[in-house]
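Request from the bench team (R.T.):
"We need a structural guess for the complex before ordering more zinc ion. Sequence and SMILES attached. Just send the tokens back."

Command: build protein-zinc ion structure.
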Amino acid sequence: MRSLPRSLDPLHDETLTGFVLRLAHRLGTTPAEILLRTGLAPGGSPGLPTRLPLSFHYHLDEAHLAAFARATLLMPAEACMLLVPLGQRYGPLNPAFTPRSTPARMIYDNPWVLTRSTRYCPPCLTGNGTPIQDRHGGPWQRLWRLPVTFLCVRHQRLLAHQCPCCGALAQSAHAGSAIARLSDDALNPWQCRSAEARSEPAEHPAHACGADLSRESAPVGELDSATMALLVQVQRHLAGLLAAGGPESTTSAGAPVPVAHYFADLRAAVAMIFRTWPEARPRAGTSFLAAVLDDEHASRTAEAQPLLNTAGKKKTSKPYTAPPTDSLATGAVLQIATRLLRASDPCEARESMTPLVHRLRDADRALSAYLCRAAWISAPIRAAVGDC
Ligand SMILES: [Zn+2]
Ligand SMILES: [Zn+2]
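Reply to R.T.: structure attached below.
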């Protein structure tokens, strides 16, 4: 593998796919060509790759990583724009809390990491005004791939998740490829790569939507200042825990735990909140957030309803366990989840969790047992919810 004539320094918290898009833009070529030249083409087939496996977001084996680092003139550590290191702090990507048979399997059927699309902050995509970001845009950030990131603290705005023009999920994977339109060299890294809704199918390849995602879309209804302040506070707290060099431990259910355990507990708390709604409704910080969750819960119930009437193995609790797609609903449920876990001692934790635990057991015994497994939540929360 020869080095590229020019490379790029990865930007702070940049994803591998974002880096490939910026590099292709810099060299005036297609993402497919970059994948081929940097050893990221899935092995075997000759010629330009037609897809980038979704698992490459998360993990690369030694050989791929070494080839990529050599071709891009980066140190292997610098070349690590993957999600796998986030698992040290984020339980839903940590094998201790999300056991999987191989690293590549971590992303499958794991709604707590976004690999088929991403959230994003338009002003962040515009870049920070440096010449390199003026030319190729700001980073598509790794933390936007974690559903617990719902707000840009720097720009004080909720993250978007759709193209304002065509409505497609941002950076949505097409045909199992982490980058859509691999052989398109006409798009900037900040443009929507979804197929244009109106374009003709069949033999003519669809045009890309091409909308500029860094442009401010019309505001989707202003948040009142109390709600915004509360959501910023929740996001700051979570971002502080996820940051490399952040604290080693934090408090969950009234006892200190490593940070990764805390995020595993948050995931379980979200499932409990949705499955037992409106039990936790009084804990919503503002009436606006409570109303947002009323709507979110109603849509989950509607999703679960048809499953009740299907034969075979039922997955009726599934609609309640995933984080919301929408940033506002995510912020709303995480505000309550963080509050639930914030007890000052194990006694208080037990007191605040008990009503939810009881209600969950009545409503969904299978889910209640599932959420209490040692390989799903931390020891303190297990103590808090155990045999209430
Ligand atoms: Zn931003
Ligand atoms: Zn679009």
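Two things stood out. The longest strand covers residues 249-252. The first helix runs from residue 16 to 27.
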